[in-house]
Amino acid sequence: MKPNSDTSHSAAPAAAGVRLDLWLWAARFYKTRSLARTAIDTGKVEIGGQRAKASRTVRAGDALRVVRGEEQFELQVLALSDTRGPASVAQTLYAETEASRAAREAARALRAAERNGYRAPETKPDKRARRLIRALGDIDAL
Question: Which GO terms describe its biological process (predicted)?
Fold first, then answer.
């Protein structure tokens, strides 16, 4: 009777929720579970405005804030999954708020505008130019 009670308890939480690192991996926010776990441990993922642990259970309806690189997502969990599937399926697991989407687009446009005037050199620097670059690097070190 003991094994049956253990399996029934382990099956109930699995139906009610999924581990946070597993859900982030399945929703394709991170390529591996270890990257998701590292992001969670470094405070880049919050549930309901609070830092979470990787083993925290995610449930439908939870509000998440995920920082990935220079982008910040504010999400509402719509569905649960513990398997990684195609991107079209992963996008059905969450809904991003309109404010979050607008802020991401504005930040992306700002980054594009900042590098708008930059033109990469057409050729590699020659020997003289490399010496000048090295000399300038030495000046910056002082």
Answer: cellular response to heat
CB 74 within 8 A of CB 99: yes
Count Cα atoms within 13 angstroms, Cβ side, for 8.
5
Instruction: State how far the Cα of 134 lies from the Cα of 129, in Å rounded to an integer.
Output: 9
pTM of the predicted structure, to 2 decimals = 0.70
Tokens at residue 36, please? Answer: 């998701």
Q: What is the pLDDT of residues 103-112, one digit of tens each?
A: 999 999 998 8
Classified as helix, coil or strand, 49 is coil
Fold that domain 2-105 belongs to in CATH: 3.10.290
Partners of 68 in the β-ladder: 71
The one-letter amino acid at 31: K
The span from the CA of 15 to the CA of 80, in Å, is 9
Closest C-alpha among 81, 105, 103 to residue 92: 81
